[in-house]
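Field log, afternoon session.

UNIT: design team B
ACTIVITY: writing a sequence onto a fixed backbone
BACKBONE:
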């Protein structure tokens, strides 16, 4: 069962609509909601971390005595978004409480605000997310 947060900046007053972290009872295997900074629009959005990683298959040909090809899988990240579990998106302070879901840690305060460029964005608890 996931939960919802509301990003609010105590410095400039920036806020967005609520964002789901994790997944609901019926969707937790296909949906892993998380807050992320959209680098194109400079806004905080909810992304699905399951869709955030893309697997690209690169085929290479090797020439020996006979022609042989092999496929290599490479995981790439969607460069349009920076999730808020990345170390550059928060101030690392051990006294700050955390939101945990699926092995990812989201700080409850001192996160990067896209509007005032300070680390004063808080993720306020909004409750549990049910399907």
């Amino acid at each position: 069962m996931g939960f919802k947060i509301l990003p609010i900046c105590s410095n400039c007053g920036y806020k967005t609509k609520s964002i789901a972290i994790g997944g609901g009872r019926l969707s937790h295997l296909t949906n892993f909601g998380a807050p992320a900074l959209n680098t194109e629009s400079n806004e905080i959005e909810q992304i699905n971390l399951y869709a955030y990683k893309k697997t690209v298959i690169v085929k290479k040909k090797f020439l020996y005595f006979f022609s042989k090809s092999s496929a290599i899988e490479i995981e790439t990240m969607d460069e349009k978004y920076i999730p808020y579990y990345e170390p550059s998106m928060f101030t690392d302070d051990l006294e700050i409480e955390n939101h945990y879901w699926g092995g990812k840690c989201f700080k409850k305060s001192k996160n990067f605000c896209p509007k005032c460029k300070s680390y004063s964005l808080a993720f306020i608890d909004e409750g549990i997310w049910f399907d």
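LOG NOTE: Residues 2-129 form one domain.
NEXT ACTIVITY: expression trials, pending approval
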